[in-house]
Amino acid sequence: MQSKNPKIRLKILKSVSNPSSMHGIYPYRGKISALDAADIISQLPQKGVLLDPFCGSGTIVYEAQKHGLDAIGVDNNPLAIQIAKAKIDSSSDDVLSKSMEIINKAKLDFDNGNYLQMPESAIKSFHSKTAAEIMCVKNHFDEMSEYLKGIFFGSIALAARGCNGYMWTSSTVGKNIEPKTYIDFFDKFISKAKKHSKYMLTPKDNKSKIISGDSRHLSDFIEEKSVNFVFTSPPYFDGLDYTAYYGKLIYDIFEKNRTEIKQQLIQHADSYQEDMRLVLEELDKITTDDALIIFVVGDKKVKNKVINGGEFFNNIKKASYISERTYSGTSSQVFDVLNKTERKEQIVVWDKLNGEVLSYE
Ligand SMILES: C[S@@+](CC[C@H](N)C(=O)[O-])C[C@H]1O[C@@H](n2cnc3c(N)ncnc32)[C@H](O)[C@@H]1O
Q1: Distance in Å, CA 128 to ligand 1 centroid
Q2: Per-residue pLDDT at 2
Q3: Which atom of ligand 1 is least distant from the CA of 52?
Q4: Most informative mutation of 265, 274, 275 for ligand 1 (most atoms within 8 A of CB)
Q5: 212-271 per-position pLDDT tens digit
Q6: Beta sheet of 70-75, edge-to-edge order
Q7: Are 327 and 343 in contact (CB under 8 A)?
Q8: Which of 111, 126, 291, 343 fits a disulfide with 299 by CB distance 3.0 to 4.6 angstroms?
Q9: Which class for 338: exposed (0-12), middle (13-18), buried (19 or more C-beta within 10 A)?
Q10: What pLDDT is recorded for position 1?
Q11: Residue 322: phi, psi to the nearest 5?
């Protein structure tokens, strides 16, 4: 049978740095390259429902919605849910006047000393005046739109880096660097709200939704045979902690128990394969009979052994095809030189119409 489904290709990645876009709103851990996501989505038809069952900060959901698809994002990490909601917020509120209104109220709180002390575990990452300003803005969190809530989280991450002399790299986030630099948080919040607002999607585009839930139980909250495309970058099997990194600061500021959140996520090497089998079974139920299911995975080094992500998933459920590329021009290349490995990235595609016609290219 001739498939009406397109054959998805993975481009050679020239750079992982994305141009200024909505995706710069927050440095979410494990974020997929937006250029890559947009490239894969551009190969899909412009009609139908796309689901990202591990949507993280909503990169794929935003790009899918921009392409004309109705996008659904699912994640079980409240921080991810908030950032993803922020990205697809198209509320017609005047973002700039609303952010000014919030900052003016926060400034009054600051002048009147009307704010709580930032919790001990978080305050050590900030200059004391910046920390006080953050707590004043936090007083008005419930008045913020989804977009401004995302901006608030992104500004906290940015301020934390700034207070530590912009010396934090992806592997040193949280490192205590003294002396702390003062960062004007009020100013950061307004300039960040302005910077990303030009990428907000218009209300007419917005049929997308973000659901807080566990993808091992998708059929409990997504209708059977209702999804045409699944596109995701799943959690890694070497246990990346999606509640850590800048997220730790935000959870600490909001006094949320990270351990409880973490326990609800798939990130334990021992149960990873079984968890993913459950997710693939659930995806089978909620997708149409001609759906395309696309996972972007990669090689991972576990206990000195490199595990090929494509083969790993193909062993769980036979794929229709897998295509592969080596990392190029990315920081991972440096890792590979140091560790004498050559790691690759794969897209694994299950084409339900064409079934199992495995080819490896
Ligand atoms: C690789 S990240 C996705 C990043 C995303 N593509 C982005 O650009 O931000 C994997 C995501 O899976 C989520 N996750 C882990 N276990 C989950 C589960 N059981 N149900 C739903 N989401 C889960 C994590 O919270 C994390 O956000």
Answers
A1: 33
A2: 45
A3: 6
A4: 265
A5: 999 999 999 999 999 999 999 999 876 688 999 999 999 999 999 999 999 999 988 889
A6: 209-212, 70-75, 49-52, 227-232, 287-298, 344-351, 321-326, 359-360
A7: yes
A8: 343
A9: exposed
A10: 41
A11: -135, 135
Any ligand 1 atom below 6 A from CB of 239: no
Q: Determine if ligand 1 sits within 6 Å of the CB of residue 247.
A: no
Does pLDDT of 65 surpass 90?
yes
For ligand 1, whether the C-beta of 74 sits within 6 Å is yes
Q: Residue 334 corresponds to which tokens in the numbers above?
A: 């440096």
Atom of ligand 1 nearest to the CA of 83: 9
CATH T-level assignment (fold) for domain 22-90+208-245+268-360: Rossmann fold (3.40.50)
User: What is d(CA 90, CA 72) in angstroms, rounded to the nearest whole number?
Assistant: 15
Dist. CA 245 → ligand 1 center (Å):
14
Q: Strand runs (DSSP E) across 49-179, as ranges?
A: 49-52, 70-75
**Amino acid 88: pLDDT:** 94
- pTM greater than 0.70 (yes/no): yes
Distance 353 CA to ligand 1 centre (A): 27
**d(C-alpha 33, C-alpha 161), whole Å:** 22
From 61, 242, 260, 268, mutation site for ligand 1 pocket: most ligand atoms within 8 A of C-beta: 242
Confirm if 290 and 1 have CB atoms less than 8 A apart: no
Kindly report the protein residue whose alpha carbon is nearest to atom 12 of ligand 1: 54
- The whole-angstrom separation of Cα 343 and Cα 166 is 30
Which pLDDT band holds residue 307 (cuts at 50, 70, 90)?
Answer: confident
Instruction: Provide the residue ranges of all domains of the chain, joining segments of one domain with +.
Output: 22-90+208-245+268-360, 95-197
The atom of ligand 1 lying closest to the CA of 84 is 9
Instruction: Give the closest residue to 184 by CA, choosing from 129, 120, 141.
Output: 129
